[in-house]
Each structure stands twice: as C-alpha cells, then as structure tokens.
Amino acid sequence: MTDVDVAVVGAGVAGLAAAYRLAGSGCEVRVFEAADVVGGRMTTLREDGFVIDTCAEQIAERGYRETWKLLAELGIDRTAAPRIGRGIEMWRGRARGGVAQPRGLITGAGLGVRARLDGARAMRGTFDVERPEVSGLGDRTVAEFAAPYHPDLLDYLLQPVVSGFFGWQPARSAVAPLLALLTSVGSPRTWRTYAEGMDTFARALAEKVDVTTGFRVDQVVDDGSSARIVSGAREISARAVLLAVPAPVAAGLHPCHGSAFLSVCSFTPVVKAHLLLDRPLGGPGYALTVPTAEDGTVATIIFDHLKNPGRAPAGRGLVTLMAHPSVAPDLLTMADDDVTERLAGAGERFVPGLRSATRRAIVRRVPDALPEATPRALALRAGFEASLGQGAVDYAGDWVFLSPCSEAAVRSGLRAARRLAPVVSGDSG
C-alpha cells in the first residue's frame, strides 16, 4: 500500500502546476517543499511595506500561453499582472534606451549602425523554445555565434542580456535557447509583473493542492512499480515521485537515474542586493543592463518601484542589484554587509545617490537559480525528454527545456502531469 498517488518534491511553479493538474484528474497528490514558503525561484519577500521579488522579476505577454491559460483557470485575469510599460536600458557611457525593442534598431540602444544591421540579420530565423536543439545553430555558444558580426553585437547586446537576466557567460552558454526565448517573448515594453508580487501564481496554485513546507527530502528511491521519498528517519511511499527541483538537486536526490543530461545540466547562481531607499531613484527604464565592458561587478539594476508602484511605499524606492556572473560564486559565501558594499559601491556609478538613499539592504542568494544551456546539455536534452515517463520517478522544471523562464517550468509541470496520470490511475488503495 502506498501513502499517496504522487509525491511532488518542490513547490515552485513546475511542481505546483503538476500537482494542480493531477489533483484535478482525481489523483491524491502531496507536495513537499524544503523552504518555509512556496514559489521556489518565484518567491516574494514582504518587509516594511516593500514587496521584494527575490529571483524572477517579470512575465511576458507573448510566449506564455500555458501560464495565462492556467491563470484563467484559477480566476486570475490580466489585471492582476499589469504591464510594466517601461523598457530596458543599457549602459554605454550613459543609459541608452531601446534594448531588445524594435525602436532600438533606429535609436541605436548604444549600438552603431553596422552593429544594428548585424543584429537584425542575426535574429532572423525560426527558433523553437521547446526544442532549441533543432534550430540549426548546432552547438555554437553565444560568443561563437556573435564572432562573425560587429563586436558590439556581443559586447553591448547579447552579453548584457544573457549575463544580466540569466546569469550566463557567453563563452559557455549555447545561443539557440537564448534566441528561442528572446524571439518568443516580444518587446520588454509588453512584459508584465504580478501586482502583488511574483509569488502570486505560486500562492494561488498552492491553495488548490496539499503542500507541506519546511519538509526536506534527503533521497528518492525508485522501487520499480512505486517510489519512496526519504526525509531523515521518515519515508513516504507513492505510486510515483515527481522531482520538480533544479537539475543538480534532482541528480543528488536520485543519483540512480544515471542520466548523462542530468549530470551536465548545470545551473548558474544569482546573488541580489535589494536596497530599500528613502526616495525613488532611476528611470525612465525599469531595468538597466551593465555590459562586462563597462563593469564586471553589477550585471543588472532593477528599479522595482518603477516596475510596479506597489513594490515600495509612497515616496520611497526599491532598487535591486544583480551581481555579474563572474563574481556571483564568490558572493555566495560572503557576509551580507560585504555583498551590499561591493554591489552598491559599483551601482553608485550608474545610479548617483544610491548609497546615501539606502536605509536598509536585504541580500538574497540562489545557488541554483537558472539552467545553464551549455552546448553539451543542449546535445543531450532531447534524449532525456524522450526518456521521461518510463519509471516511477519523473522530472519537471524549466531546465527540461533549457529555457530559463517560468513558462517553461509551467509547461514541463503540465506535461509531467499528463505522463503520470495514467501511471497512477488505478486503485489508489
């Protein structure tokens, strides 16, 4: 006898979406989350009237079909996720608008004429966010893809985007998943953010399913026709276990799977310093990307109070500094005050008055923040996906598609639910 039909490990949107769909099909499902809150990489911290998005920052109006469908099922319409309505700027001596927007081809967005023309040529083609490996770009990295073009295309467009939003390094990361995601989500001016915080979606899903937070899973065992999760001296048996956690975590919990893809599917860390200000700063864009050529400490600056006015109390400001990928690993173990000093010190150049306006800083570290789409992982991705559903242990997460976005996580969770529903459709007793 099993304790539950499906045990889901991880209460991010991938695990919660899967649990919601499985519960709706009549399965007995329980979700186990090590943290004290749901949301995974879409968690939100609420402090002193500030609403702080600790990892994910926005969702797209385009390319997020499964997300919007599921939100509608939950009774959440688009007014709960208003448009940000502001663009992204890039620093080249000064802030320059139009990044990743059609108007940037006209205004320049910091790029010269030749680089703009090269950018238009480079972005031509059809890219599949679900199967990035079929794009025809092969195993080229971002740096290799950009090499034939004007150097500015890499230094002042592709590198700031991949490092500033994904934590990737252009010489390591495959270009196909990047172009697939960028071409699917449209202009940043159409992007949205949940008015009540980026955990809105996760909290709504969690209300519909059985979730146990503060529950650390140490091991997952596949017994053939069933599986078990082990937490200390406690074991919970299930007809199936869904590992909806980052790939390195999944590989550690269930090393017997032996997947080559799991062994090379690395994640990049993200370190952020959220600065609670006594006044609003920045603008007109809601985000500023900082190329490596300009600074190697801060990769992105988010003006959260411009992203959505509810992120900070009236008359106050909230600014998030995201560390450059080259320094993020060191900051993971550094004291909070030292992290704040290093990031705010670098940020002062781009946001004058930042340090004097800061009244408090909150540092957040996410060791496994975003799937790193290396060429090796890209080559193995399709084979791994084809192997899913063949045992009592299954997997879900944005990393299944090597696409660092919440839509990929939702899509993978829903597909896992479709695979698992027939497995557990028999007598649950």
TrEMBL record:
* Pfam families found in the cross-reference section: Amino_oxidase
Q: Which residues form the Amine oxidase domain?
A: 13-420
Q: So which domain of life are we looking at?
A: Bacteria
What is the recorded name of this protein?
Answer: Amine oxidase domain-containing protein
From what organism does this protein derive? Amycolatopsis oliviviridis
